[in-house]
Amino acid sequence: MSSLESFKKRKGLGIIHLNIRSLIQKDRMDHLKILAAQSDPDIIVLTETWLRHCTNDEDIALNNFILHRKDRVSMGGGVVIYTNVNLQANVLCAVSKEKCYEFLALQVSLGKNNSFVLIGIYRPPSAPHSAVEELADLLSKFSASELLVLGDFNLKWLSNASDHLKEICGNLNLTQLINEPTRPNLKEPTKSTLIDLILSNKADKITASGVFELGISDHCPIGCIRNSCTNKTGSRLVVRRNFNNFNEQAFLSDLAMSEIHLTLEISDVDGALNHFSKTFLTVVNKHAPFKKSRIRDRSSPWFTGEVSSLFKARNKAWSTARRSGERDHWLTFRQLRNKCTSAVRKAKSEYYCSLITSTRNPQNVWKIVNSLKNNSPPFPTSVLVDDQLISAQKEIGQVFNSHFAAAGHIFDKNSTNPLNKTDLSSTVSKTHGLFSLQPFFSIFSC
Fold this sequence. Notes:
Blueprint: H1 4-8, E1 13-19, H2 28-39, E2 43-47, E3 65-70, E4 79-84, E5 88-97, E6 101-111, E7 114-122, H3 129-140, E8 147-152, H4 163-171, E9 175-176, E10 196-200, E11 206-211, E12 222-226, E13 237-241, H5 248-257, H6 269-287, E14 290-294, H7 305-324, H8 327-357, H9 362-371, E15 382-385, E16 388-390, H10 393-413, E17 428-431, E18 434-437
Parallel strand pairs: 1-2, 7-8, 15-18
Antiparallel strand pairs: 1-12, 2-4, 3-4, 5-6, 6-7, 8-10, 9-10, 11-12, 13-14, 15-16, 17-18
């Protein structure tokens, strides 16, 4: 299994892991949606998400998936797991230790007596030696269950640097399923490394695993297929009437020629209703028959056939370059990868510009604009004023109103002071959702 296309055709539960190197970076969510559409996974594990407490779940949501996350308090790191809405998943453990690791464990239930523990792990390169021991202790708590661990350990599995981790895996009966480099060096392929791993203590339940096409970040997605009694979720089908060949005059003519007028001659109410319904639907079904259609995922309506073809060409170039190892083939892949990035931005820009241009209602225009906004900061949970903590939203609003009203009054009195020499940042400080307001008077005291 070496391509997303073959992964998509699987039978069983499909799980993908990717070190995404910032989920909130420009275009990352767009490319993640494309990855989900190309592979149709049941579970997605992301590491190095770089999320902060001010990142709303809505900003990183995927259609038909439930979001589970464990962020690092400071910048960097973090783990996110998306589970299909048809799966029952509960968080068992979520731990973040600064500069050491992030650890997120879920209990995934597939039916009666059919469940396993799914764990996402990120360990930064600078983590101390003790971090591996601590991760081993966390893993051992779930060793009695079936374990499936996916993550970026930043330890080169194909070198001696990972010997201690290999020993721990042996002690916990964990088998490492990935055997190809996951962080390729496109200029010097011999320096590529295998640091993204899939570990299982029930390897016989994993029918396939592999490394997929490089695309979103400098890490390749990896994935596996677990045996499952639950069938892969298929596309949704809807039944609706087809009006493509509908002719209003022909419809009205056939309706007039029918026996629908006899409805008024039937004294029994139920009989009259049955006659009317049967006669009317017979004519309707002739002119607007029912048609089954598949619901397409419109979370990325700008993802055109042209963009899709470009992504397929990129994936094909990746496979060719990995097989041959030739520099020219890697160069072709890099060029196509850059074209894909540009194509996504162009298609998205053209789609929304066209949508806004064709919309005359200002209210709808603002709905479109607001749908493009991401990572909006939340309303502050509390405000510190004169060493007094205020948490009621109404009182917080009044405090801000009074604060900035006072600021305007002071600026008016001190209009001779050049504003470009005044550091206003000292008046408002924010730490993890807690605002602290100081009077403006202090900045003009000199």
